């Protein structure tokens, strides 16, 4: 993993010693949650958010809010694991589980990394193809080149990568801020949608399952623990508590921004498509429909945010994949090999002529299968005193994490059952 400069390390040490304070001191600890938050604004979220807003207006905003709260909890636990143990989730899994289990976990995680890259590459490529009227394969190639160019900065330490990812997140956020200014949002309806749990029909339940089931991303759980494991050189329990406090604050802020971006996606789709175009379900259709409804500027910002999302999430996905391989197998591979391993399947799918939206759906199904692996492992580790010491999570938080895991995994099961055509009586009607 990258490292911090000596100046930043000295700054962190002075904050932990109590010699520095204020918001600038907090910024020294910022970065890990910002990078992890990209997973919650990736292209896989665009399709489900567009479907939710177009089909049901503001009704499903409460689902986005609930999903975001669950994400905050698990990312905070992942960061806690890295800060307390000095190891990431993959390394702890390798050290504590039987060898056959480790190999299975690694294999599933690698498949999940490929599925993640498929969605992210397609998102960036679709955006470039639509914006510049390019073939989808050309968009894929450009996305690959830009992603690799950004990954080169990883060798220069944490800060350059964090600043680049932070800038791309800012682009996404500003684009959607502009979108909700341009679109005539019914703010009272949006507020009611956030606080009123309602599922009008079986199709709404299916979309809700898609929103929540794709929220807690496997690679983000692995990555966050690795980004925090050696960031601050803590010398005692008091300093560790202070780092945890900074980390929890950053998680709340970064994931709140990601949640607001997702809500803005739903609100934009609700405002533009719900009355008259409720059948809009694909990214390409949304773009072509936005132009006559809200103007070329709104459509262009939609694509700009999609491109920024695809590139940033692809970079983060590669970082996570490298950490997963290094943690489970205990060796580091060159970044270009890591990039190639997860990139080839995405190119193969596009070359085979598979519909882009269908490929995005398939990637979410694969991620749903892989999700239980890191979620369950994370809860096990943060609940064990021999691993966490005095920082083991208390019973109340353990119950809350268990309820969140059951909710997410249960909804993932519904998504998988529906995809494979299994009969689900409560989805009928």
From TrEMBL:
Entry-linked Pfam families: Nramp (PF01566)
Any GO BP: iron ion transmembrane transport
Highest taxon above the source species: Bacteria
Main location per the UniProt record: membrane
Keywords on record: Cell membrane, Ion transport, Membrane, Symport, Transmembrane, Transmembrane helix, Transport
Membrane topology category: Multi-pass membrane protein
Bilayer-spanning residue ranges: 21-40, 60-79, 100-119, 125-151, 163-182, 202-223, 251-273, 293-316, 336-354, 360-383, 395-417
Subcellular location: Cell membrane; Membrane
Role, per record: H(+)-stimulated, divalent metal cation uptake system.
Protein's name according to its UniProt entry: Divalent metal cation transporter MntH
Species this protein is from: Celeribacter baekdonensis
